[in-house]
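User: Sequence in, structure out. Go.
Assistant: Echoing your sequence, followed by the structure tokens.
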Amino acid sequence: MSGADPTRTSKVIGLQERRLGRTVLRTYRTKADIADIIPNERQPRLGPKEDEELQRQIEANEGLFEPLLVEPHPDVPGKFRIIDGDRRWTNSSALVERGKEQFRTVPVEVTDRTLTDEERLRVWIYIHRQRKEWDAKEKEMVAYGLVDLVGRASAANILGITVRELDKLVEVFELSEKFRNLREPGAAITWARELMGISKKLLTPQAMSAVVKKVNAKRITNSKDLRKLRHILPDPVAREHFLSDEGDLESAMLRVAEAPAARKPKNAIVGDLSAAVESMKKVPWTELEAMRGNEEVLRKINEAQVVLRNLKKALSS
């Protein structure tokens, strides 16, 4: 199949429409030699792509189960460029390099034309949003990669979020890069998300540096334990102890317990309302999108509106 002409092949094989979000592609399916497929350099996924587990899956399935989505290469006649499937191509290539020639020919879904950069990014992001790993680790990484590729405004537009939301994702990714020596490198995003959930008023650069240092030294081993910082950092004694070299979360929490208990707002309802507002602000845009049209959520919002309206009326009169 090496050297096949994508244009000539598309004339012979019937095209089908494939809708991916706002983008509609016309594609056909065929098979191609690994050597005729070229990765896309402007792809937002970062990090290593070789994966021994994926290679085992390819071998167990006797090839790729899902075809690579490719387009006619704009600069290399007779070749295809990957739109989606870079990891599958990389790991199939690794098997071929080890002499397993049966994996040289792979299934592909070919577009009838070369996409624009924006179309390609939109398609790739739409596909990855349907996969489990998007929420697990990818959205921050992709946001960071997109900013580097197309800038903040275009990246936010492609992801369908505000620039402010984009900046938060980028900030989480940049923080995750500081967490090292974790048992699972992919868990760095989880640590960063937990830490960024702390109020910015409390999470000073010094506090953030202390957390990263203690996590990397394995003095903090559970990301959920970072939530204790919400109690530690407002307390001057506990905070000072935690920021010291000998301080850790547990010993700092003991100092919170020893401190005077009068920390709650004198007006408890103000504190409760503030906590509720802050909690709602932290709901990720992906969760909001998933709850769109949810009758139970809308009913609860209506109940909350009634309660707040009556409370406002009572306090105003």
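User: And one key feature?
Assistant: Confidence is low (pLDDT under 50) at residues 6-12, 259-263.
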